[in-house]
User: Fold these one by one.
Assistant:
Number 1:
Amino acid sequence: MDFSRGQPGDQEGGPGPGLPGGLLWEQIEPPSHHFSPEERALLYEEALYTILHRLGQPEPNHVTEASELLRYLQEAFHMGPEEHQQLLQKVQKLEKPIFCLKATVKQAKGILGKDVSGFSDPYCLLGIEQGVGAPGGSPGSRHRQKAVVRHTIPEEQTHRTQVITQTLNPVWEETFILEFEDISNSSFHLDMWDLDTVESVRQKLGELTDLHGLRRIFKEARKDKGQDDFLGNVVLRLQDLRCQEDQWYPLEPCTETYPDRGQCHLQFQLIHKRRATTASRSQPSYTVHLHLLQQLVSHEVTQHQAGSTSWDGSLSPQAATILFLHATQKDLSDFHQSLAQWLAYSRLYQSLEFPSSCLLHPITSIEYQWIQGRLKAEQQEELAASFRNLLAYGLSLIRRFRSVFPLSVPDSPARLQSLLRVLVQMCKMKAFRELCPDSAPLPRLVTEALRTGTVEWFHLKQQHHQPMVQGMLQAGKALLSLVQDIVGDLHQCQRTWNKIFQNALKVNLFSVAFLELQWLVAKRVQDHTAAVAGSAVSPEVGESLFQLYVSLKELCQLAPVPAERDGVLALDGFHRWFQPAVPSWLQKTYSVALARVQRAVQMDELVPLGELTKHSTSAVDLSTCFAQISHTARQLDWPDPEEAFMITVKFVEDTCRLALVYCSLIKTRARELSAGQKDQGQAANMLCVVVNDMEQLRLVIGKLPTQLAWEALEQRVGAVLEQGQLQNTLHAQLQGALAGLGHEIRTGVRTLAEQLEVGIAKHIQKLVTVKESVLPEDAILPLMKFLEVKLCYMNANLVQENFNSLLTLLWTHTLTVLVEVAASQRSCPLASSRLKIALQNLEISFYAEGCGLPPEALHTATFQALQKDLELQAASSRELIQKYFCSRIQQQAEAASEELGAVTVKVSYRASEQKLRVELLSASSLLPLDSNGSSDPFVQLTLEPRHEFPELAPRETQKHKKDLHPLFDETFEFLVPAEPCRKDGACLLLTVLDHDTLGADDLEGEAFLPLRSVPGLTGTEEPGEVPQTRLPLTYPAPNGDPILQLLESRKGDREAQVFVRLRRQRAKQASQHAPKPGR
């Protein structure tokens, strides 16, 4: 056989006969299954003769009526009524064949032991008794004779088997041909005898084994010498037999002495000799049977095709009956029947459509029965030719498997798999190896067929896509379609076909197809790109080139692993052929996206898409544009790392530019739509949508690193770029675009906030002008309702990020307005109270149960300062005085230095007497306030604040002359209830003064003892031993206390003014005698 890269062979179509790729079979073309009229007439005569001279009972599934078989023959041979009648009459006039019974005596078992040894030496006599089988009678009903065959059948018609000595289970395997004339009155007879040879008594005694054997000796003694013993017989009417019988028959006794005489295994076949048909006289039996089988199977297949069904290999009962009768009558062996079936089926398979699995049975049968030298030379050549023909035809189908077994037909994979199985089994046969020794291994033949078929398929596809009009664009589109078809074909090979060839032959179809196709594709793509590079590239041609590039990438991704291919691929580095077109691809990508963005903005009515989707249609279109750009980048996926980096830079630059263009366009669109709107609310709606669109755009832009696979790019370019170059370039571009978008969003939110800030300021100003009779909770209602309406509206129209930004701006502005108003209302506790309640409610509103601003965004420094100021401004004068003393008590507790001196006291409270007992023990380290370097100290004791203890007058100690460490040791008692002593700010004020005779006393310092910490007031028990308390002296704050400033502003409050005057006096005194640093 010759292997070559031939030109494309047969055109695509059904599985008709054709040359396999590279196989020359001029002399092995199978003969047609159609016969000439003369051959058909002779074959028809043979079939009629078979039916008319049918013998035996029909098989269970066979047709009984001859008329039905004749009608079937007439259809199968396409015989007209007249021609059929003529041939039928001709056959009826032919001489009958000689009817024969082919009887095979196989074996027997369980026969009687007639010899002294307990065994027998059996043999059989058999023949046919004629003229006794009258209808209704039975040979078995006659009186059995001991020598049926010898007495009823002439000796020349009697047949005898060999003698099998000393056995009860003899095996003969002998076949006899018994002729008969009339099956209706003929019977088969078989007698089984034990051969009796003449032996001496001594010999017999030597064989004696038991008493039963001794009885046989006495019986033998009474017999005539040399007389055989009857073992049993079998008598059968021939008309009761089927054409073929194979079963065990019981041996019948001639007496009832031993009714169970064992069984005999017989095979029968009713055959013909000297058939009078022309075909039988002129051709070998198996050849005639082959032709008949071929004709009937052809008819069966054709009938199924006419009914739009596929023949499954099962013959109709009529065909099966005729073929069985013919094979039986012609006495064809199973081997020759299988041989005929193989020759017929293998020929028909090459011209008719039926499952190749029908060929497996004859292959198996021939392989099982094959014996070298069993066939004649011409039969061997015929069988060898059938092998070569089927192999060549099968390879032709494999070569064209894409068209012969299309995947559009559901059972195509199964059909191909069945064909491969048949070829594999055939090439494994002993007969094939002996008759076709020069045949190449099947995997090599199939590989070559697949390679040649793939090249032919490529050329057919190329011709199919050949453009009608010649031009660069048309050529590019044709090449693109061709490559796409190739990619689709390789996918099919990979998913479906490769597994079939791999399992059957260990042939990697996918690798074979890919390696062939990639060379063919590479040559044509390289030629096309070279031609395009030499001329101006139009947008259409550029788009065609890009699609071709993408298809080639998909094709290369299918490449087998290096272990399954030799060397480099022709498509390696194919991207370099497209390098000149890359700039035009990038420009077109940007131009298309820009046009789409402009069109989307122009059609946008700036209305939210829904309750949950708060951006408009243009934002959706813009996201789609960016997704398309990212998709194009992924499709391009340029292999060269450095160039891939520059391409990615361009994609990012274009995307960021589009984002900023969109911001400009959408703002212009909003101005156009709101220009004719009288409703300011509608303009606000549009502004909300614009801000949301920009926010959506920012989210999309932020996904660029993922969409463009920056991480993978960074790994690829790490070896060719400087460290940090990708970060500095791509991320800088992205951050610049995000910063620009952030500025635009903030500007939009700032505009929305400004529209609300005016209303907020107006309502806060109204708070301080409401009548005094209106409660603060009612006074703030208009402000809260205004905020509720506006914030709900903004929340419904802004995405969460922008709404939070708006809240932040509004909160900052609201605090600023509250600070300004609070400053103007310092002297009005009522207004400050309203502002305080307003601040509390505004905090709750802006927090919105966790859905608004977080606490850290609300509690700014401004908020905390304002909250503290309003807390003071809203308090009454007495509350402020109380707060003042609280702060002085705190200052006292924090005082650690005694640079002004200190006083020591013991203070207790007796609840039973409601007396506060103060023991003023001493003072120490006082400042020398007199010109003589000393002081004249005394201590003034008062319970503060005065409004809590109005009945208690101040007390004083004795004055000590020129003493900086006086020991007073004086006791004072104050009659006072416990309740005011336990209040915040309640304290014992110890004022140490320097007595001046001519002028006002000078202040040495003050000490504050909180009454709630005094023993007796902290619990219910009476105090025991009272501890001493040492209190450092302090001065009032030199910069002025804010509480005093607030009290001073309340000009109409006499109590406040008196308190402030006293505290100012003490502060003035302190400033005159403040100690110098380093004392």
Number 2:
Amino acid sequence: MGTEGAILVEGENGRKRKRDWLNPSKWLAGYTRWAYKRPIRIFLLVCAILILCTIGAVASNAWDLSDEGDEWTLKKNRHAKQDKAIQEAEDLLGSFIKQSNRSEDNFFLKLGFIYKGTGDPQNMFTEENLAIMKEVENTMLQNAKFVNFCELNYTDVDNPICINPQSPLPFFFQFNASNQSQGYGEPIRTVAEGLAIMSEDLFTNGFFFTGEFTESGNTTSKYTQSRYSFGLPVPGYNNSNEEDEDQIEYVYDNFLKEVENDLFEVLGMEAKNFFRTEHCDSGKLRGVEVVFGAFALQNEEFERVVWKDFTWAFLSLLSVWLYMMFHLGSFFLSCVGAFEVFMAFPTGLFFYRTIFGVDYFAQLHILIIFILLGLGADDVFVFTDAFKQSEAMPGVGKSLPERLQYTAHRASKAVFVTSFTTAAAFFATATSGLMPMRAFGIFAGICIVLLFLINVLLMPPALVLWAGYTPWCVRRCCCCCPPVCRFLHRCLPCCVCCHVVDDEGFDLSSGAAFKEVAANADNLEGGKLTVQTAHPEDQVYERCTSALTAEAVSKMRPLERFFNGKYFNFLKVARWPLIIAGAVLFGVAMYYITTFSPPEETEEWWPDYHNFNKYQDLTDRGGPFISEDDDTFATVKLVWGLRGMDLTGYNVWDPDDWGVVEYDTEFRLSSPAEQSHLLGACGKAREALCTASACDADENGDKFLVRFDRSKPDSFERCWIEDMDEYVRSNTSLGYPDGLPVNETDFLPVLKLFMDTEVFLLKYQGHVGLFGGDDLKYVQLELTSTYRPPTAHQKTEPVLNAWEDFIVGLNEEAAANGADGVSAGYQTGGYSWVWIFSQKALIDNAVQGIFIVFAIAFVVLNFATGNVVISIIAIFTVAGIVTSVMGLAVKGIQDWDFGVAESIVSVILVGFSMDYSLHLADSYIESERSTRLDRTQDSLTRLGISVTAGAITTLTSGLFLWGAILTFFTKFAFMITSTIITSYLWSMLFFPSMAMTFGPEGSFGDWSTLIAAMRGWCGRGGEGK
């Protein structure tokens, strides 16, 4: 060969080397050689890096849960920004005005009691049952701290007292309103006399009676209820909005917690075991069933329950580790697998919060543990099963380096396909408008990617240590262990805790280092440098081209032989019935999916037996009581002077960062036209009709926007401007006997005089945005609506639209009458309105996420397998899994609507539905044989055992969640169980049936073949031209 030819060869080989080192397989081969030569160093190095990441996560406080706030709110939604604007404006105003202590109630601090009567018929209004009520409520009233936390009535500004409770007991027992700490005393009238007085005003007192009260001639009510209110601000705060969550927690820690414990004792409520709380028990006193609740109590109970429910994660990890030890037959490898899963979470947390700077971390993120348990165990099984099968693979042999290279190549590719697809499924949720879903998706994706890397980096040196070092260590460290393990191995081949049999391909000299495989980097064949022969073990995967022989199969484990023989033969006979059954199931499941609808009622987060679920069922819409008090109805605010929130530069991961308030610079209220327009707004709202089904009707069946007793026309709560009008009329010194409007120049001074009156300041602080005394930035009118939350968004949205139509009409009227300063008002119903759009976003994003995941999975499958036909079969299988779970399991069996919990869980579990079919599809293409039957048989033989083991571990980890309290976790458990069972059946029955019937043979469907054909077609087209 001449000099020129040698240069050409050298140049070609140089380009080949460059291409080789851009190939991930070459990097993997190099790492595997390194792991073979220095297993202890590399194993300890990888472990040290993971431990350092964990320490970094702890040191950077990455484990700290984010404070709860507005994380589930769509901050860019107009209604959300408008609602937040009035909250922020009130907070800012609070820095100028000090609100009287405990002068305002708070919805979270309303403690309610509901009693279920005894007797036949069941009736709470008997002397015995009323005495039981008195005993229960005196438990709280006679607590010495009650008077320090009750909401105060400032009618006598100098001597405020606790407001009167909403309870039927004052109608029957002595009660000193000015000294309520004495509690209820002796009877003051008979039951019949008390009921007669209460019956005179059923609009108000219907709160205490159920429907049968009027039917029984006003004598019998199966249930009755009481409600007590605790006020804000507490000492140390200027107003009720200032750090209101901290104030609520202060009231709970210093009073309500003690009351809660006292009620547990009086009502005999006990935590039956570690995994239950007292609220899981029924409360009774001498036969009367008592339930009680307050949102402040629910928040604290939720925190307790969440951590109790998450203790099941530890049991899940333990169960997975035990099964891994059983399946792998190695204590060491099972510990490595558990270590991988355990370390993926804190390492992911370190990258998520410290490296990528995502601040938000909540309880929802902890659910990733259950996903990592399933995926991590599956990855370990794929690696170890490939290693154990490698000895029987033709072309591999017994050499440990060659077996290690074969294992790393086959297992890493299989794990990559499932890991990347599952990670992409979670990363797809980053398109969600809801910040917690975006954050969870990003965190889950990071954890899964890191789990893949940990598995690929840790398993090669772990397998080398398992193959040689553990037998050596066991023989020297535990003299009794080898005989015991050999005995167990003979009796129970799958149940071996210590690997004590030396690997035939392992070479260990006195426990020292391995002998390195000889390599020849200068081997020339036909004038070309064969770089691969420098490490012949690197090419072991390419040399494994012949079919599994009967002898090779006989050396495999029983389950592998089962999949290779009996199971495969069964599928050959039953494939057409299985394909038809799959098509029928798919059609039935699709029918059920078309019947999905959002829930018509509010989501239930507590189980049926829980105290708070019972309380919620009785107080929700459709409850047994004749009427509810105003506080249970949504308050709608009509606001002028604000536009919303300016989100420029806000931190998307901070639930409480809303930017700054955006004021309406065109707002004015000084002109007579503007004063007159605002003065008439409340009256017009009271007479406005509501056609929404969620608006409560009055006694005549008519529906209005605003709630009050229409049988008493003057019983409505006045707006501040109506009280100001009366103030101006009655104050003759002002010179306006007809009330509002006043002259433009007089309006602001008169408004200041009105708001400086203490009784009005206490009643309307926050309603009038006077900053610094002379800067009127906003005003709001508060009205009690006829809508009682919570309900599902399809019921709430028509109510919002009715109020939206009203404010639009009001603004148009203002513009037409020359009241331009108040022609840009808006309305907000608070969280009731805002949650509508969060609910819709959850459902829309779940559906959108499923379609995105399918698209990503199809692309990844085509990239990994290089074959479009097998990718289509795999995607059809995944579609069957998803539709079966959502249609047959969720809707058909459980009859759940597609609510918040279902939408969250569907996004989490969609990745689970793909793993098994993707494994089998990849193994089908990797088969060395060409016919579809042979390829299917190889796929089942190689991956059937791993898929089965992975399904068992994931199913086992999910089963523990059935013991949780929160319905979200029990729904999650059901969907894990149904997804794994469905995924396994579709993957092990439908997919191989489709593959052996329609799967590609030879290079049919390969993208390389298709591209070559297209090039040829284009070439022929060019020649024709």
Number 3:
Amino acid sequence: MSFFSRNEKKYISRYWKEVKVGDFVQLRCNEIIPADILLLSSSDPDGLCHIETANLDGETNLKQRQVVRRFLELVKFDPLKFTSVIECEKPNNDLSRFQGYIVHKSGKKDGLFKENLLLRGCTIRNTEEVAGIVIYAGHETKALLNNNGPRYKRSKLERQMNADVLWCVLILLIMCLFSAIGHGLWVWQYAEKKKPIFDLPGPDGKYLSPVLASVYLFLTVIIVFQVMIPISLYVSIEIVKICQVYFIHQDKDLYDEETDSQLQCRALNITEDLGQVQFIFSDKTGTLTENKMVFRRCTVSGIEYSHDDNGELMIFFFYLTIEKDITPDPSLLEKVNECAKHLEVMRSHEQPLSHLSPELCDIFDFFIALTICNTVVVTAPNHRLTSGSNSSSSSSLATSKSMHRFGVLSSTSTDSTLLKLEEKLTYSAQMNNNGYSSQQGRTAVGSGPGEGELRYEAESPDEAALVYAARAYNCSLVGRLSDQVSVELPHLGTLSFEVLHTLGFDSVRKRMSVVVRHPLTDEINVYTKGADSVIMDLLLPCSSDDPWGKHQKKIQSKTQNYLNLYAVDGLRTLCIAKRVLSKEEYACWLKSHLEAESSIENREELLFQSALRIEKNLHLLGATGIEDRLQDGVPETIANLRKAGLQIWVLTGDKQETAVNIAYACKLLDHDEEIITLNAESPETCAVLLEQCLQCVESKFSNTTIDEAAGNMTVGFTPLYPPSSPVLSSLGLVIDGRTLAYALEPTLEDKFLALAKRCRSVLCCRSTPLQKSMVVKLVRDKLKAMTLAIGDGANDVSMIQVADVGVGISGQEGMQAVMASDFAIPRFRHLEKLLLVHGHWCYSRLANMVLYFFYKNAMFVALLFWYQFYCGFSGSSMVDQWYLIFFNLLFSSLPQLITGVLDKDVPAEVLITVPQLYKSGQNMEEYKPHMFWMNMIDAMYQSLVCFFIPYFTYYDSDVDIFSWGTPITTIALFTIMLHLAIETKTWTFLHWSSCIFSILLFFFVALVYNASCPVCHPPSNPYWTMERLMGDPMFYFTCIISPVVALLPRYSIFSHLQLGRQLSKLSPQNRTQLLTKLNVRRQTQSFADSFSPSLVSYASDCYKACNQSAPLPTSPQTSESLFQKHPKAEHTTDQTVAASPEGAVLYGENKLPSSASSLERSTGFHEVRHGTSEMESLPVGAAFPWSSAVDQADFSLLKWISSTPLFSRIGTVLQVSSSSLQNEPQDSMCVLGSSLHVDFKGLKEQSSNNLQDKMKGTPADYCKNDNSETTFL
């Protein structure tokens, strides 16, 4: 970096930290910009500078910056001659905005805008040398103001843990207060002359008063009992999280070979939140789709041309270069060549273009618009300058260039600009009447770089796809300057279009336009491309009286029909239009446009109005359909995530038709669903629609009606969500951006949320980045639900930051989303394993680890507390001080860390195959609030056992305090280790090694310490204590019996069992075969993804024999759909599936079956019939009825099992008699579930009829129609 020194009057090298505001800086190609610099000079003849903003937003495409007006005409910039004054806005973090003005010595002002500013962190590209003045430096630059440092998020588990830590503090204070009061009473009971011999007076010969002794004792026991507050828990959790993140990074399944990228964890403190997500908010383009646009369809002049070969190539070549290698349509290519030949003949014979047929004219202009109506930068890898600079230009082109510079970029007055315009128009009047310039040099025929060498730097994949499509038809973009675009055409060579103005795309106008001077006709043409919803309204009105008007209306009608078909196919549509301006129209518009460009205040609004004045009365050329293919595995991922109980909302900026069809393709919406589409033109209409929809949905799916219609059904399950929000309905909600803006107003947001949470799927179309974040915040705050947002572009940053968990995808739209996210993944399909596997593991590990820490510390502190009753609450300890220090630090720390890092309650393949297991994290089944108190009670009980068994063992003996306290410490360590062993689900070599190492380390330290400390702690002495104890059989007896009695409740009471933990006990071969069977059966069910597969109940042969007299019926689909079913789903009324053993199975004493076939027989595989009702949101208990080979002894525990958190949702629906179970052999298996030998279809029809009878006269009557999709307009 070179800094201009006024003393030496030249540029010298300088460090970045020395740069100050007002310094002049000179930069060369490939140098990084050190500060926010106002561009005053460039080696480019047009005053352009190309920069790469990858360090800011991750985008690698080049962007253009322009030298400030009035400095363009300078041959060489001299900093010593700079006398202007710059006034600009205060430093801010808005990267897309910069306003100010520069006051010259003459008093004239020029506006300063973002196009004139080089931002810190960007890199100079394709420009030899630039110079400018520093506007913002250091921490005031926009880049550093955007860097707020790492965002801190607290996980839900951590927040609950902090609350429990406060309870620990309260318990500690109660224990200390109790001890202080006890000590005060103990001191008070002795008279002044009856003090015990060990109670020594103070230096003044007086004894402490009971009150003062209590205060001192209170402070003493706080130090003694301080272990009650698990400070080490926070350190241990951080260590475990770092190790968990490391293993997540090492997962090869989360690596994408195509992009050579892997998962990144950018937030270490919320890994457990991955296992508790309830709502997923996803972008569509680039997140669900590839964001690699392929030109698939186009229609020109009302004729449609298919490019289906490109779609087939995408399948075979896996998206590598298909966006560049486009196969043209033969008929359209033939017409393009025919058009080029006619143009060549007419140019050689100097004939006007009016001789060309209207269809060929539209085809020619259509591809010209595709080529030049964009901001694509053309670069050649072997050239440092833009490849467009290699194109030759004539003298007339120089005239055009100078005109453009005076008319658009210079700071001269409007009058002088119009004077230049009159000269130009006079020159145009001298042209021949045939429409061609007499100077053939205006065509600027030349040869640009070879097509194979060209590289297009586009701001969006859509633009690149259109430019590559035009190149496939031999209409190639070969060069671009600020005022010129060079296009190479067949038979015509290179045509240079003079670019007069570029009206960029914005989200309000939803289009972009370029104003160019046509090199063949010298006409001023406006080429516009944009959304069909706005272009169609800007077309020139056509009269039905004249044939031309009828023809144009016919073309518009055909084009609109083709656009609708493109949207149905899920294609991204664009309309291409053109307008020819007369000299008077352009002169009038130019005057107002220059005033808008020169304005300093309200410049954006004035430019917006100026664009509206010229973008009207357009002539429709055609339309395009670009395909953005779904990423691999997206439908399967969405299906599995929904089975896991996750609600998925898609928030996209695409048009409604395209978004809906992509939603069907990715199985977010199902064809058997009823779709509610909300399109409102005003807030009042939106309020009425929301109210009507809520009344309809509530009346159709109210719990009261469902219960009454169910009649005497005895089988039912508690839903995952509260009864007031029945999410189980098969409804989908589609809402556009305007209606969403109304629905998010404070007066309507509650109604919108009430309707949305009753729908299985929500699709928000035409939504802005702000609306996306507002939707996420609404669900997060109102429903108190765990939210996850995933996106890939800058427009997704706001919702990623608002969500509890933000996930970014490194795609085609840059790295903004990744840099703002907590986790970054290469593909959407990786979200499945990240949540269902790693999220489940992280939550399960940390939840159990936190509870174990609370238990361990409370249990150890309670031992010291019980001793206070026998030492006058003096704060003494029967445990050696070194044992107190090392107990948490060395003896018991390693095993819990190993378990927290490596424990797997369910294998990964089971979690993927049975996604319903994820609901345990959503329901916080591993760490509920009452579990803290259960652990505290368990710790108190175990401490009583570990204290009083040694107490009564050594009662009335002559052992010293350490000879009695050391066995208590040993027993406590054994009990804590065995407790951890019970809680550990997966045992590895490290688990065994850590436990054995901890025990051996304790004995080693005890033996060495007791043997080397003969004079410690007088009058008591730990010398040779452990050596004597190890020779005493009573020591071994107490160390064995005490942990067994302490852990007896955990031996006798079943831990809650899940299907995954049951399957994990199978041999790897049997488990693989069983899971393969599950996958095969699911893949053969074409309709299985529209509801939770295998959501059925099973009955084994033994159970059917027990219950033939009184079979248990299953709960039917009792809720009638809100609207009529889609015709496509009629063939799926009934379906036969193979019931898979997806229930928790308690095996008897016999060993597991040795083969998959015997396992299949034992678990009761049989064919069942069921309806296609939507039931996938039911809890795990409904999806997988628990089963058991229960003998007489085990049956007494059924009530306890049903009261555990996992089984509490099953309810009281399983009525099994004790006598029937006692008659079953132990080697059989009984599946506790409901029989499905009930005609589901008949029950559904009966319930539907009941519902229809009950619904008469309700507000839902207006909802009845024959369409599966009802649109409220």
